[in-house]
Amino acid sequence: MDKIIRRQRLVHYAASAIGGFWGGYTILNHMDIFGNAQTGNLIKLVLGVSHGDFRFAGFMALCFLVYCGGNVFYVLVRRRVKISMKIVSLMCSAAAVALIGALPFVRNDFVACYPIVFAAPIQWNAFKIADGNASSTIFSSNNVRQASILTTNFFLDRTAANAAKARFYWLTLLSFHMGVALAGVTGMWFGVNSIWFCYIPIAVTVVLYCRYKGEFVMHNS
Are 13 and 175 in contact, with CB atoms under 8 Å apart? Predict the structure, then answer.
């Protein structure tokens, strides 16, 4: 069972690197937009309206709708398809990269963010729990909260459970920002074309997930 849990966590870390890459890529290459989450984007929407920049506000409003669409897609597919939603998420992630990388009009406009904005909530829902820990693979706020609280609790109580949970959240944060670093380094050399390097964490996640499922099936057979 310990081996299954370790592999489950590794899948979560690898998926977090995908989320980190997305965030780094869109911020670096597309108007400082964080395509993974909507808090900052909705603030920018309201500020755009208040400043009279309705073109930008319209773009942010469409980001919001596309993000909602990703959640709707997750619910509908989960109800109608028997494939693991983690696999569906990875397929959507791969398709998003292909759309951004292969189509010039997508690569160089507002539209470049939309495939990521759509795929991000699908990944969040599909990879939201690992080893009983609720953790986002596409942004860091709750992971920072959990990591700092659990670390504090560990120093106060010295319990192994708090240490293990704190380690999980710190490693999730590390993995996420390794994805950001990959986007940053490749973006320096390849600009908008650096999106293709997102296939590295996607491929790693696929391999780790297949190993995890194989171990899970063997354990339960």
Answer: yes
